[in-house]
Amino acid sequence: MEIAARRFDCKHGEGDLKFLTEISVLSDLKHKNLVSIIGFCDKLDEKIIVTTYEANGSLGQYLNSLNLTWNQRLRICVGVARALSYLHYDKGRDYAILHCNINSNTILLDDNWETMLSGFEFSIKQSVNDKDQVCPCEHTGTMGCMDPAIEKTGGVTHKSDIYSFGVVLFKTLCGRKALIQNEADRSLVQMAKYGYENGTLHDIIHPQLLNQILSPQSLLIYSKVAYSCLNEDRADRPSMHYVMANHEKALELQLRGENIVRLFFPILLSFFLVYIIHAY
Q: Is the pLDDT of residue 98 over 50?
Protein backbone atom coordinates (compact mmCIF):
# COMPACT_ATOMS: atom_id res chain seq x y z
CA MET A 1 0.00 0.00 0.00
CA GLU A 2 1.25 3.47 -0.89
CA ILE A 3 0.94 5.94 1.96
CA ALA A 4 1.39 9.62 2.69
CA ALA A 5 3.18 10.48 5.95
CA ARG A 6 2.82 13.99 7.30
CA ARG A 7 5.29 15.12 9.94
CA PHE A 8 4.24 17.96 12.25
CA ASP A 9 6.63 20.60 13.48
CA CYS A 10 5.98 20.40 17.21
CA LYS A 11 8.73 22.62 18.59
CA HIS A 12 7.47 24.33 21.72
CA GLY A 13 4.16 22.49 21.29
CA GLU A 14 3.15 24.57 18.27
CA GLY A 15 1.87 21.61 16.24
CA ASP A 16 0.22 19.63 19.05
CA LEU A 17 -3.27 21.05 18.55
CA LYS A 18 -3.19 20.62 14.75
CA PHE A 19 -1.97 17.04 15.16
CA LEU A 20 -4.67 16.11 17.67
CA THR A 21 -7.40 17.90 15.72
CA GLU A 22 -6.64 16.05 12.49
CA ILE A 23 -6.48 12.67 14.23
CA SER A 24 -9.74 13.33 16.05
CA VAL A 25 -11.58 14.31 12.88
CA LEU A 26 -10.22 11.63 10.55
CA SER A 27 -10.70 8.89 13.12
CA ASP A 28 -14.39 9.72 13.52
CA LEU A 29 -15.31 10.20 9.87
CA LYS A 30 -15.61 7.82 6.94
CA HIS A 31 -16.60 8.97 3.47
CA LYS A 32 -15.45 8.03 -0.02
CA ASN A 33 -14.41 11.63 -0.73
CA LEU A 34 -12.29 12.12 2.41
CA VAL A 35 -8.70 10.98 2.89
CA SER A 36 -8.49 7.99 5.23
CA ILE A 37 -6.21 7.80 8.25
CA ILE A 38 -4.10 4.64 8.43
CA GLY A 39 -2.21 5.36 11.64
CA PHE A 40 -0.11 7.88 13.54
CA CYS A 41 2.99 8.23 15.67
CA ASP A 42 2.95 10.27 18.88
CA LYS A 43 6.22 9.69 20.67
CA LEU A 44 8.17 12.39 22.47
CA ASP A 45 8.47 15.24 19.96
CA GLU A 46 7.74 13.07 16.93
CA LYS A 47 4.21 13.46 15.62
CA ILE A 48 3.33 11.86 12.29
CA ILE A 49 -0.01 11.11 10.65
CA VAL A 50 -0.18 8.41 7.98
CA THR A 51 -3.01 8.61 5.43
CA THR A 52 -3.88 7.10 2.08
CA TYR A 53 -1.69 8.28 -0.79
CA GLU A 54 -3.50 10.22 -3.50
CA ALA A 55 -1.47 9.63 -6.65
CA ASN A 56 -2.52 12.66 -8.70
CA GLY A 57 -1.70 15.34 -6.15
CA SER A 58 -3.93 18.34 -5.58
CA LEU A 59 -6.46 20.20 -7.70
CA GLY A 60 -4.24 23.27 -7.38
CA GLN A 61 -1.64 21.63 -9.63
CA TYR A 62 -4.09 21.37 -12.53
CA LEU A 63 -6.12 24.59 -12.49
CA ASN A 64 -4.56 25.81 -15.74
CA SER A 65 -3.84 22.36 -17.17
CA LEU A 66 -5.29 21.39 -20.55
CA ASN A 67 -5.20 17.76 -19.41
CA LEU A 68 -7.96 18.23 -16.83
CA THR A 69 -11.20 18.25 -18.81
CA TRP A 70 -14.44 20.00 -17.92
CA ASN A 71 -16.03 16.62 -17.26
CA GLN A 72 -13.28 15.78 -14.75
CA ARG A 73 -13.48 19.22 -13.12
CA LEU A 74 -17.23 18.85 -12.66
CA ARG A 75 -16.77 15.42 -11.08
CA ILE A 76 -14.11 16.78 -8.72
CA CYS A 77 -16.40 19.63 -7.60
CA VAL A 78 -19.28 17.19 -7.05
CA GLY A 79 -16.93 15.11 -4.87
CA VAL A 80 -15.96 18.14 -2.77
CA ALA A 81 -19.62 19.13 -2.39
CA ARG A 82 -20.51 15.63 -1.23
CA ALA A 83 -17.66 15.60 1.28
CA LEU A 84 -18.63 19.01 2.69
CA SER A 85 -22.29 18.10 2.84
CA TYR A 86 -21.30 15.04 4.89
CA LEU A 87 -19.10 17.15 7.18
CA HIS A 88 -21.75 19.80 7.78
CA TYR A 89 -24.55 17.36 8.41
CA ASP A 90 -24.85 13.60 8.65
CA LYS A 91 -27.79 11.89 10.34
CA GLY A 92 -25.41 9.48 12.08
CA ARG A 93 -23.72 12.28 14.07
CA ASP A 94 -24.95 14.90 16.52
CA TYR A 95 -22.19 17.32 15.56
CA ALA A 96 -21.07 19.17 12.45
CA ILE A 97 -17.50 19.65 11.22
CA LEU A 98 -16.37 23.06 10.00
CA HIS A 99 -13.41 22.38 7.71
CA CYS A 100 -11.94 25.94 7.85
CA ASN A 101 -9.28 25.21 5.21
CA ILE A 102 -11.04 24.72 1.86
CA ASN A 103 -8.76 25.57 -1.06
CA SER A 104 -7.51 23.90 -4.22
CA ASN A 105 -4.47 22.46 -2.42
CA THR A 106 -6.47 20.57 0.22
CA ILE A 107 -8.53 18.92 -2.53
CA LEU A 108 -6.52 15.81 -3.43
CA LEU A 109 -7.04 13.46 -6.37
CA ASP A 110 -6.55 9.70 -6.34
CA ASP A 111 -5.33 7.58 -9.25
CA ASN A 112 -8.85 7.62 -10.75
CA TRP A 113 -9.09 11.43 -10.38
CA GLU A 114 -11.67 11.03 -7.63
CA THR A 115 -11.85 13.76 -4.97
CA MET A 116 -10.21 13.17 -1.59
CA LEU A 117 -10.65 16.14 0.76
CA SER A 118 -7.77 16.67 3.21
CA GLY A 119 -6.37 19.40 5.48
CA PHE A 120 -8.35 18.91 8.69
CA GLU A 121 -5.80 20.35 11.13
CA PHE A 122 -7.89 23.52 11.67
CA SER A 123 -11.30 21.85 11.74
CA ILE A 124 -13.90 22.58 14.41
CA LYS A 125 -16.50 20.23 15.85
CA GLN A 126 -19.79 21.93 16.61
CA SER A 127 -23.21 20.80 17.78
CA VAL A 128 -25.62 20.41 14.86
CA ASN A 129 -28.07 22.68 16.66
CA ASP A 130 -25.43 25.44 16.92
CA LYS A 131 -23.91 25.27 13.44
CA ASP A 132 -24.87 28.90 12.69
CA GLN A 133 -23.07 30.03 15.82
CA VAL A 134 -19.82 31.92 15.21
CA CYS A 135 -16.71 30.02 16.34
CA PRO A 136 -13.33 31.69 16.95
CA CYS A 137 -10.70 30.03 14.75
CA GLU A 138 -6.91 30.32 14.69
CA HIS A 139 -6.84 29.70 10.94
CA THR A 140 -9.42 31.67 8.97
CA GLY A 141 -8.61 30.46 5.45
CA THR A 142 -6.23 30.86 2.55
CA MET A 143 -5.60 34.28 1.03
CA GLY A 144 -8.20 34.89 -1.67
CA CYS A 145 -10.51 32.14 -0.35
CA MET A 146 -11.19 33.69 3.06
CA ASP A 147 -14.76 34.43 4.12
CA PRO A 148 -15.03 38.29 4.28
CA ALA A 149 -17.62 38.00 7.08
CA ILE A 150 -14.91 36.76 9.47
CA GLU A 151 -13.63 40.30 9.97
CA LYS A 152 -17.10 41.52 10.99
CA THR A 153 -18.09 38.59 13.19
CA GLY A 154 -14.72 37.54 14.65
CA GLY A 155 -15.06 33.91 13.66
CA VAL A 156 -16.31 31.24 11.28
CA THR A 157 -19.49 29.25 10.67
CA HIS A 158 -20.25 26.42 8.23
CA LYS A 159 -21.09 29.19 5.74
CA SER A 160 -17.39 30.12 5.76
CA ASP A 161 -16.63 26.76 4.13
CA ILE A 162 -19.31 27.51 1.55
CA TYR A 163 -17.72 30.84 0.65
CA SER A 164 -14.29 29.21 0.26
CA PHE A 165 -15.81 26.50 -1.91
CA GLY A 166 -17.40 29.17 -4.10
CA VAL A 167 -13.94 30.59 -4.76
CA VAL A 168 -12.66 27.09 -5.62
CA LEU A 169 -15.58 26.63 -8.04
CA PHE A 170 -14.60 29.73 -9.99
CA LYS A 171 -10.90 28.82 -9.86
CA THR A 172 -11.82 25.45 -11.37
CA LEU A 173 -14.00 27.00 -14.08
CA CYS A 174 -11.60 29.78 -15.01
CA GLY A 175 -8.27 28.00 -14.52
CA ARG A 176 -7.01 30.95 -12.48
CA LYS A 177 -5.58 31.63 -9.05
CA ALA A 178 -7.67 33.41 -6.44
CA LEU A 179 -5.40 36.48 -6.60
CA ILE A 180 -4.25 37.55 -10.06
CA GLN A 181 -1.09 39.63 -9.72
CA ASN A 182 -0.64 40.38 -13.41
CA GLU A 183 -4.04 42.07 -13.53
CA ALA A 184 -3.42 44.88 -11.04
CA ASP A 185 -3.80 42.51 -8.11
CA ARG A 186 -7.46 41.89 -8.92
CA SER A 187 -9.15 39.07 -7.09
CA LEU A 188 -10.89 36.29 -8.97
CA VAL A 189 -13.95 36.84 -6.77
CA GLN A 190 -14.29 40.42 -8.06
CA MET A 191 -13.84 39.31 -11.68
CA ALA A 192 -16.25 36.38 -11.34
CA LYS A 193 -18.97 38.47 -9.67
CA TYR A 194 -18.65 41.18 -12.32
CA GLY A 195 -18.74 38.62 -15.13
CA TYR A 196 -21.78 36.83 -13.73
CA GLU A 197 -23.74 40.03 -13.03
CA ASN A 198 -22.97 41.53 -16.46
CA GLY A 199 -23.27 38.42 -18.60
CA THR A 200 -19.55 38.40 -19.51
CA LEU A 201 -18.42 35.39 -17.48
CA HIS A 202 -17.32 33.65 -20.69
CA ASP A 203 -14.51 36.23 -20.97
CA ILE A 204 -12.69 34.76 -17.97
CA ILE A 205 -13.54 31.07 -18.35
CA HIS A 206 -10.58 28.95 -19.41
CA PRO A 207 -10.80 29.08 -23.25
CA GLN A 208 -10.13 25.36 -23.67
CA LEU A 209 -12.96 24.54 -21.28
CA LEU A 210 -15.46 26.69 -23.19
CA ASN A 211 -15.19 24.25 -26.09
CA GLN A 212 -15.91 21.30 -23.77
CA ILE A 213 -19.03 22.68 -22.08
CA LEU A 214 -21.73 20.92 -24.10
CA SER A 215 -24.72 21.99 -22.00
CA PRO A 216 -25.40 25.72 -21.52
CA GLN A 217 -27.85 24.79 -18.76
CA SER A 218 -25.09 22.91 -16.94
CA LEU A 219 -22.86 25.99 -16.99
CA LEU A 220 -25.78 28.19 -15.90
CA ILE A 221 -26.48 26.00 -12.85
CA TYR A 222 -22.78 25.73 -11.96
CA SER A 223 -22.10 29.47 -12.19
CA LYS A 224 -25.33 30.44 -10.40
CA VAL A 225 -24.48 28.24 -7.42
CA ALA A 226 -20.84 29.39 -7.36
CA TYR A 227 -22.00 33.01 -7.40
CA SER A 228 -24.50 32.44 -4.57
CA CYS A 229 -21.72 30.93 -2.42
CA LEU A 230 -19.89 34.26 -2.59
CA ASN A 231 -22.63 36.37 -0.97
CA GLU A 232 -21.05 38.59 1.65
CA ASP A 233 -24.00 38.04 3.98
CA ARG A 234 -23.75 34.49 5.32
CA ALA A 235 -27.53 34.17 5.57
CA ASP A 236 -27.77 34.56 1.79
CA ARG A 237 -25.35 31.72 1.05
CA PRO A 238 -26.89 28.33 0.20
CA SER A 239 -26.57 25.18 2.29
CA MET A 240 -24.00 22.63 1.20
CA HIS A 241 -26.79 20.14 0.51
CA TYR A 242 -28.25 22.60 -2.01
CA VAL A 243 -24.83 23.14 -3.57
CA MET A 244 -24.27 19.38 -3.85
CA ALA A 245 -27.68 18.68 -5.43
CA ASN A 246 -27.22 21.39 -8.04
CA HIS A 247 -23.71 20.30 -8.96
CA GLU A 248 -24.92 16.76 -9.42
CA LYS A 249 -27.55 18.19 -11.78
CA ALA A 250 -24.92 20.19 -13.66
CA LEU A 251 -22.82 17.05 -14.12
CA GLU A 252 -25.87 15.08 -15.28
CA LEU A 253 -26.66 17.73 -17.94
CA GLN A 254 -23.05 17.78 -19.14
CA LEU A 255 -22.99 13.99 -19.48
CA ARG A 256 -26.29 14.14 -21.38
CA GLY A 257 -24.75 16.67 -23.79
CA GLU A 258 -21.70 14.47 -24.28
CA ASN A 259 -23.92 11.46 -25.02
CA ILE A 260 -25.85 13.42 -27.65
CA VAL A 261 -22.61 14.47 -29.37
CA ARG A 262 -21.32 10.90 -29.18
CA LEU A 263 -24.55 9.60 -30.71
CA PHE A 264 -24.94 12.08 -33.56
CA PHE A 265 -21.31 12.76 -34.51
CA PRO A 266 -20.96 9.53 -36.59
CA ILE A 267 -24.21 10.37 -38.41
CA LEU A 268 -23.09 13.92 -39.19
CA LEU A 269 -19.69 12.64 -40.29
CA SER A 270 -21.37 10.16 -42.65
CA PHE A 271 -23.48 12.92 -44.23
CA PHE A 272 -20.38 15.09 -44.59
CA LEU A 273 -18.40 12.30 -46.30
CA VAL A 274 -21.28 11.59 -48.69
CA TYR A 275 -21.45 15.29 -49.53
CA ILE A 276 -17.70 15.44 -50.22
CA ILE A 277 -17.82 12.33 -52.43
CA HIS A 278 -20.71 13.68 -54.52
CA ALA A 279 -19.12 17.13 -54.70
CA TYR A 280 -16.05 15.66 -56.35
A: yes
DSSP secondary structure code for residue 114 in this structure:
-
> What's the rounded Cα separation, in Å, for the pair 172 and 6?
26
Q: Which of 104, 83, 247 is nearest to 174 (CA)?
A: 104
User: Side chain identity at 120, as an amino acid letter?
Assistant: F
Helical axes 158-174 vs 70-88, angle rounded to 10° = 180
Residue-range domain boundaries for the chain: 56-260
CATH number for the domain formed by residue range(s) 56-260: 1.10.510.10
Write a three-state SS string for 219-266: HHHHHHHHHHHCCCCHHHCCCHHHHHHHHHHHHHHHHHHHHHHHHHHH
**Length in residues, the chain:** 280
pLDDT at 140: 67
For the entire predicted model, the pTM comes to: 0.90
